[in-house]
Amino acid sequence: LKWRLQTTDESCIPLSINCWPSDNGSGGCDVNIEFELENTDLELNDVTIAIPLPHGCGTPNVSECEGDYTHDTRKQQLLWQHTIIDQNNKSGSMEFSCGGNPDDFFPVSVSFTSSKSYSGVQVLECSHVDTGDHVKFSSAVQFFAEKYEIV
Fold first, then answer.
1. CA distance 132 to 138
2. Residue 90: HSE in the Cβ half-sphere, 13 Å Cα cutoff
3. What is the pLDDT of residues 65-119, one digit of tens each?
4. Cα 33 from Cα 63, distance rounded (Å)
5. Are the C-beta atoms of residues 31 and 24 closer than 8 Å to each other?
6. What angle do CA 120, 122, 128 make, to 5 degrees?
7. Which DSSP symbol is given to 134?
8. Cβ(40)–Cβ(87) under 8 Å?
9. Model pTM?
10. Is 98 exposed, middle or buried (0-12, 13-18, 19+ CB in 10 A)?
């Protein structure tokens, strides 16, 4: 069983991201970004929030960060990472300063995996199509975002 959800309806998103870059008056921006788990039944693993950085801005000055971060100089991104986001760790924020204009910090992209189904659909039993006899089966749940961007 495989299904796909493609929507622009923000009420369906499992994780909301808000990013506010503001001009700091010194030729750069102060950026505040935060997340919140919208569906607390989910457990998101290996979460990476990738914020694009303007070319030539150098290393961003991170003043506050809940979680870990790395500066990917090859892709010109600030990667904000969380091992797990769940009902016990459902929100976080990061603040940093960097050269550039407010539009330079979009689109923000998000990646994660989860062993819990977004829909809650489960396979309860499996039977032979001709005889109706129950057959042994196994089930593996994998939930991930193919493309998750904040533009």
1. 18
2. 10
3. 999 999 999 999 999 999 999 999 999 999 999 999 999 999 999 999 998 888 7
4. 12
5. no
6. 160
7. B
8. yes
9. 0.85
10. buried
